[in-house]
Amino acid sequence: MVRLLERGDIPSNKVGTHRRVRAEDLATYHLHRDEGRSAALAAMIDQAEANGGYDVPATFGPRRRG
């Protein structure tokens, strides 16, 4: 959290040794972070679908000789 505040990702005021963060600024940060995650996930899904990733049967564990 301190790193986010020091980088300026979340606006804050320092009062003595304490940092003050407005709830609205924190909510805005969460919203932007979640939007970025959703966009990245959508891009991963699009890439997997384009490569046929969902058409290949899943295999788990070591292959058995049969």
Describe the model.
- It is a single chain.
- 52% of the residues lie in helices and 9% in strands.
- A hairpin with a 2-residue loop joins strand 1 (13-15) and strand 2 (18-20).
- It has helices at residues 2-7, 23-50; strands at residues 13-15, 18-20.
- The protein starts with a helix and ends in a 16-residue tail after the last helix.
- It contains two helices and two strands.
- It has 66 residues and is mainly alpha-helical.
- The longest helix has 28 residues, at 23-50.
- The protein is elongated and about 70 Å long.
- Strands 1-2 form a two-stranded antiparallel sheet.
- The mean pLDDT is 88.
Fold blueprint:
Elements: H1 2-7, E1 13-15, E2 18-20, H2 23-50
Antiparallel strand pairs: 1-2
Order of helices and strands: HEEH
Largest sheet: 2 strands, antiparallel
The percent of residues in helical segments reads: 40-55%
Structural class: mainly alpha
Q: What's the number of helices?
A: 2
Strand fraction equals 5-15%
Distance between the termini: 53 Å
Q: Catalogue the unreliable spans.
A: none
Mean pLDDT: 88
Radius of gyration: 21 Å
Q: How would you write the strand order of the largest sheet? A: 1-2
Tell the overall outline.
Answer: elongated
Strand elements, count: 2
In summary, what is this structure?
The chain is mainly alpha-helical and 66 residues long.
List its salient traits.
66 residues, mainly alpha, two-stranded antiparallel ribbon, 2 helices, 2 strands, 9% strand, elongated
